[in-house]
Each structure stands twice: as structure tokens, then as C-alpha cells.
Write a structure and sequence with these properties.
Blueprint: H1 2-31, E1 33-46, E2 51-57, E3 70-77, E4 83-88, E5 98-105, H2 113-116, E6 120-121, E7 126-129, E8 142-147, E9 153-159, E10 165-168
Antiparallel strand pairs: 1-2, 1-8, 2-7, 3-4, 3-5, 5-6, 8-9, 9-10
Length: about 180
């Protein structure tokens, strides 16, 4: 009886944590500030459910500022949503056009040792979309992310070189790495 009770309590705890993560990401996706982060489509696959792609974020942060595997930087947002690096997140007060942005440096076995340093993520790197949208991937140049006050980014779409959204309303990922 005790084992069943512990199993039920553990399952409920996991469900509550996942639901909390989803609701947090959903709130950021709805109310966050939109940014355009440069990406390229790394691979595209189709499974039994839908098509999916893995994107690779271009690194715009100087390598000397990536001291830790995870961290937060301050970026400047232009009117069209594109970002430029400002500094490591040491500022208490930000200017009106500045935002915090979390990052994670992800080791990758298929990249050369020099490229491994630059394999960085700001939000989820894997996304699902309809088979009809698959033809749009060749034009993708930006990931559209929404960022909250703390710098947490949620991937909400993909855009072309003009910032026009090509793929929208992506299902939220439960990945905790930025």
C-alpha cells in the first residue's frame, strides 16, 4: 500500500512540475518581448506525427564573455526585433531598448572542437510543424523568440531575412535548457 502511495505521489509531483513549466513558457510566449535571433536549419525529419527540424543559433556573443556554460547577457533590441550584444548581465537597471537573454553552451559531438565553443542556445532548438510548412524552411533566417524580464526565451516561430514570420504558433517545448 505504501509503495502504491509513493508511486502515486511521485507521479503527481512530476505532473505538477511539467504543468508548471508549460504554464510558465505559455505566459512568456503570450506576453514576452519578441526578438529575432539568427539561425540556420540544421536538419529536417518526418516521423509518424509530423515534420520536425533542429535549428542552430548563430553566436553573436563574443567568446570571451561565455565564461560559464550557462548565463545571462544584456542585448540591445532594434525596432525590427534584431539583437546586438551589449555586455554580460551585470547591470541592475537596463535602458528601454535593452533586455536580458539567457544562454547555454551545448556540447555537440558532431561539431569540430572550434565550433563546439560556439554551439549556443537561447531557446529550444527542436520544433514541430505541419508538413505544408516544410517547404518554407529554406527561407528561414531567424528564430522568433519571446523573452521575459529574467531573460528566459521561448521559441514561438521562424522568420525569413526580412523578419516576416514563416512558421508560427509552434507547440511549446518542455526543454529547460535555453
Amino acid at each position: 500500500m505504501k509503495k502504491n502511495l509513493f508511486a502515486l505521489a511521485g507521479s503527481l509531483l512530476i505532473l505538477c512540475v511539467l504543468t508548471g513549466r508549460y504554464l510558465s513558457d505559455y505566459g512568456t510566449a503570450r506576453t514576452g518581448i519578441p526578438l529575432l535571433l539568427p539561425v540556420w536549419v540544421q536538419e529536417v525529419e518526418t516521423d509518424a506525427f509530423s515534420s520536425w527540424a533542429r535549428i542552430h543559433y548563430y553566436n553573436f556573443i563574443p567568446v570571451e564573455n561565455l565564461i560559464n556554460e550557462t548565463g545571462t547577457v544584456v542585448v540591445s533590441r532594434s525596432d525590427d526585433g534584431q539583437v546586438d550584444f551589449v555586455e554580460k548581465s551585470t547591470k541592475e537597471r537596463l535602458h528601454s531598448h535593452e533586455l536580458r537573454l539567457e544562454y547555454a553552451v551545448i556540447p555537440s559531438s558532431f561539431l569540430s572542437s572550434e565550433e563546439k565553443k560556439l554551439n549556443i542556445r537561447f531557446a529550444s532548438s527542436k520544433l514541430r510543424f505541419s508538413n505544408e510548412e516544410k517547404r518554407l524552411l529554406s527561407a528561414v533566417r531567424y528564430a522568433v523568440v519571446h523573452v521575459d524580464d529574467r531573460g528566459k526565451a521561448v521559441l514561438v516561430g521562424l522568420a525569413d531575412n526580412m523578419g516576416t514570420r514563416l512558421i508560427k504558433n509552434l507547440a511549446l517545448s518542455l526543454s529547460r535548457k535555453p
